[in-house]
Amino acid sequence: MFLSVLGVVKGATAEQIRQIACPGTKDAGTVRGGLKDLEADRLVATAGTAVRVNEVGNRVTEKLWHLTPAGLEAAAAALDRPAREMGGTAKAAAASGATHARKVTDTLAAFLQTRPEPMLPGPRTAPDAVPRVFVERPPGLGPLIAWTTEVTLPVAGTFASPARGSLRADLVCALPGAAPQLLFVEVDNGTESPEVLADKVARYAAFFKRPAAPRRPAHASAGPALWHTVWPHAAPEAGQRPAYPPVTVVFTQDSGPQALQNRMTALGRLSHALWKGVWHRWPRPSEIGGEDGYQDFESRIPLLATSLRQLASKGPHGPVWWRYGHTEWGTLDVALADLDGLTAYRERDQADRRRAEEIREQRAAAAQAEIEAARRRHEAAAWPCPGCGRPLHPHPDFQMGDHCATCARELPEGRAAQEAAEAAARPRRLFGRRA
């Protein structure tokens, strides 16, 4: 297990290895013993020291351990990775104290949140003065084998020989079937300006945009991006809209909440064009009125930020993430959801369509009810013909109580009127006499 940890992080102290591999042990003594055995087998070595402050405020100097070439091959076998993907032994970094690499290791431990498991007690001369209590850790994002450090992301050139302007991702988590399936982590120690940090985000965007086949005919359809070929499990399926994987920035410097907020704000302002969605406006159904729309995040990076302190205490699934473009801190699932994105718009649009259909049905039912009410009023106003009893309805030619047209012709005045009308209709003969 110790070889696997060093195979991922390349260099670490015994305490850091304990936090990742076996946090259930009382202290790092077990890890140091195991490392000495590996050192005797020439699989690991030490080339420098690191200083940390322990829980009670004391400065502690520790050895920095790294793999040897033989240990690198053994770690590749333990991690089931090709040896060519393992990188170097990190001997030079360990010799210089590996300040940044140690923060990356602390960040990985905060992501993994390895659960402490009780270990079988060894022989002791005296029992512990205070019984040990294991603190339950929050869920982590892992396992260890899903993580890789110092991953080359060439904006041009090759992975083996990247061009100028390329970058190395501090941490990459590739976990098929998880959410997210692919996650890039940038560890910020506060030693670089916000402009430099924002430039790294821009280089992430350049790498995500890079096609796998750069020399394609102008009339050919766009092919897959280069990162799709490296992590095919995270590539969009056929018919899905292309989307960039999330990039998280973990601020490790414990400089107070206001300083952290200022640095986060500066990063958001300088990288605004890389994460801000484009608003598309669409009319709502005429029955509802108004407009709606969605933020299009195609070719935009889901950019998240947190502090190492929050990540270590609450875990990667806790409400520790600030998604640029959101208005509140949220869990990883909430932070990864596009606010006012296409998915949310489609849900609202379907709800609008259902509501519009309900309104049309209500209006049609109301119109039919009015027609039926008018018919009933029309029927209620009818009266029977005094002559034949036939029902008569209100009409400009009739008044209440009148006879129907047939009966009216049978009445004396009706017959006279009928004869007069027939006479008026007959043609006149010579000298004005009617036929």
Automatic annotation (TrEMBL):
Chain spans, region Disordered: 416-435
UniProt biased composition (Basic residues): 426-435
Any Pfam family hit: Replic_Relax
Domain of life: Bacteria
Protein name as catalogued: Protein involved in plasmid replication-relaxation
